[in-house]
Every structure is written in C-alpha cells, then in structure tokens.
Amino acid sequence: xxxxxxxxxxxxxxxxxxxxxxxxxxxxxxxxxxxxxxxxxxxxxxxxxxxxxxxxxxxxxxxxxxxxxxxxxxxxxxxxxxxxxxxxxxxxxxxxxxxxxxxxxxxxxxxxxxxxxxxxxxxxxxxxxxxxxxxxxxxxxxxxxxxxxxxxxxxxxxxxxxxxxxxxxxxxxxxxxxxxxxxxxxxxxxxxxxxxxxxxxxxxxxxxxxxxxxxxxxxxxxxxxxxxxxxxxxxxxxxxxxxxxxxxxxxxxxxxxxxxxxxxxxxxxxxxxxxxxx
Length: 278
Known about the structure:
By secondary structure, the chain is of the alpha+beta class.
C-alpha cells in the first residue's frame, strides 16, 4: 500500500501514513515523502518501532547526518544520536527535574556556518501528559507581514553565537563553536522552493547588524510576537513511536515544558546537514 499523505493544518504540516521507516522504502514512496516535507515543512510519521541503527538509516533518506554539539548526551554506541531524557535534566533549587526543551520559539543551531536543514525527533518514552511540541510556518508568517515591513527586513543580518548557559554542550565543543560568530540572513530563501521565511534563533542571536544587543533582542521578540499567530502554527501531541521531521530553514519550534520531568520524556534526536543560509 502506498504512503498516504494528509494535511495537519491548512497552512502546513503533513501526516504520512502507511510507511515503515524501519525497513526498505519504495522509491516512489520516498520521493513522495521528500516532496511533501519540502512543501509542508513538518512531517509526522506515527507508529514507528526503530532500533538506533534503523533510525540512522531512516534519517539518511533525507540527507547526510550532522554531528551534534550536545556532546554530553550523545548515545555512546551511536554518537550521531542525542538522547533527550528529562530524568537526566538539570535540577532546580528544590532538587526537582527541570523539563527539557526550549522556552522560546527558535530554529536549530544557527551558531553553525551550515545549520541543519532537517531535525528528526523520535518519541521513545513519554510522560503521562504534556510535553507537546509546537511548530510555526515562518514562510506564511513572513508573507502575512505588510509589504513595507517585508522590504525592511530583507537585508537584515543576524550574528549568531552559542549561548553561554546552554546545557549538555561539552567544553571542547563549546570552545570550537565560540571561535567565530556566524552571520545569517534574518529572511532566508529556501534553496529548493525559493520561498522566503523569517529565520532566527533568539537565544543565539547576539545582535542584528547595526543594532545593539538589547535593541536586537527586543526587535526579534516583537517581530515573533506579531508574526507567529495561531493560523501559522501546529501543536504536536506526541504518541510513543512518533517520528517528527521538520525543515529548520522555514519553521520555528518550541518544546512545551508542561509535564512532570521525573516521569521520563525520552526523545532521540538527529540532525541533517544543511547549506549556508542565503
């Protein structure tokens, strides 16, 4: 039975049914998945049962696997895979585990010269409730801005660095990443579709060229507050065995912390090598 593709929202996202990424994928199904991911930006593949080896092979269907700078949580046998386990997260002053996940909308690893084009997240173990991940279509968000604002944003450049307080980054990785800030366009053109999108990681944006850091942070915060509206978002409620793939070049995401970290939210994460943003 061929893969069945169903929209998750009117503006973006696709549910891919009838595919087992743990085994061979027919050429026509793979082509449909790759095309749908570019067109719809977020893909949900449910009911997967993947060994780490199968997960790696599934990821390679979408490109070359990229090393992760979260070096303290890499799977020993397969260091390409980061293991996000809330039970191993930092603790607060009362000794309670702090849920993993970003507190703000972002795209992944803008502190790299070639940030990942895709991120894959595979649900291994989930808490009894909560722990959702939301996604925003930043192509649609950009298109919805007034024409004069789009024109003003287009030439802007962000200067990106690794955050000083980012957990799970080993000393060697941090030292290597701290050598050179990375400059990326605030409005990124997708290399396949040609569509433009707001492209930013607020935590890694040291500044916008021509602005001071505090001014830059306020500018980005205001832009995202206005641009990310309910009609350009999708909130994914995880089920065990879900594999979600998203296009970092055209989406932002946020991991919600509304769950009991001590129950264990375990996700296996891979990233796919991208291009120099333009």
